[in-house]
Each structure stands twice: as structure tokens, then as C-alpha cells.
Design brief:
This protein is mainly alpha-helical and 104 residues long. It contains three helices and three strands; from the N terminus they run H-E-E-E-H-H. Helix content is 59%, strand content 10%. The structure holds zinc ion. The site of zinc ion (ZN) has 7 residues, from helix 2.
Length: 104
């Protein structure tokens, strides 16, 4: 997954073309530091801080989207556990059938 997809904050920022360590706010066109040129070491903290101070409406949208993504993740986790449960049940059932057919 790319960083752009990972965080909804990228809806409101563009990576700076001239400086790889910076991002530009799409709303007020100000550039903010990501802390590093290396994508792995970059932080979105400055961008979040900027939105929360200057573009609060957008910041709320980001928070909302983030919590939706979390809900989605939790739901996916629940579904997975559910599936494991059913698989286990099915395994038990087929063991039972196996035993019955051989009358063990
Ligand atoms: Zn801004």
C-alpha cells in the first residue's frame, strides 16, 4: 500500500515537486516539512498540526475517515475470527463423520 492511500490526510496535501522532504497544502498552498527526504522516515505530524490549526473542517474529515478506516479494519478482523470459528466447526464435523463412517 502506498503512503498516499494509507492516510486520508493526502487528500489535502501534495508532495512538493521541488523539495522531496516537503508537502504542500492544497487549500492554502503553504509547504510543510515531512521531517526527512526518505519516505520511511517521514512524519505526517506537521501536516496534521497544520490542518488542525488552519483547516479545521478538513482536519475533521481526515479524522472521520481515519475512524472509518479503523472500523473497517476491526470489522475485517471480526470476520476473520468468524471464519476461523466456522472452519473449526466444520473440521470437527468432518472428524465426526469420519469416525461414524468407520464406526471408531
Ligand atoms: Zn492549509
Amino acid at each position: 500500500m502506498s503512503q498516499r492511500e494509507k492516510n486520508p490526510i493526502w487528500q489535502y496535501f501534495d508532495k512538493s515537486i521541488t523539495e522531496t522532504s516537503k508537502a504542500v497544502c492544497k487549500i492554502c498552498s503553504k509547504s510543510y516539512s515531512l521531517g526527512s527526504h526518505e519516505p520511511k522516515k517521514q512524519t505526517l505530524h506537521g501536516l496534521k498540526l497544520h490542518l488542525s490549526k488552519f483547516n479545521y473542517k478538513e482536519y475533521r474529515q481526515v479524522l472521520k475517515r481515519l475512524s472509518e478506516l479503523n472500523d473497517f479494519k476491526n470489522e475485517a478482523k471480526l470476520k476473520r475470527t468468524d471464519l476461523t470459528y466456522h472452519c473449526n466447526k466444520r473440521a470437527q464435523f468432518s472428524r465426526l463423520l469420519f469416525r461414524q463412517s468407520f464406526q471408531i
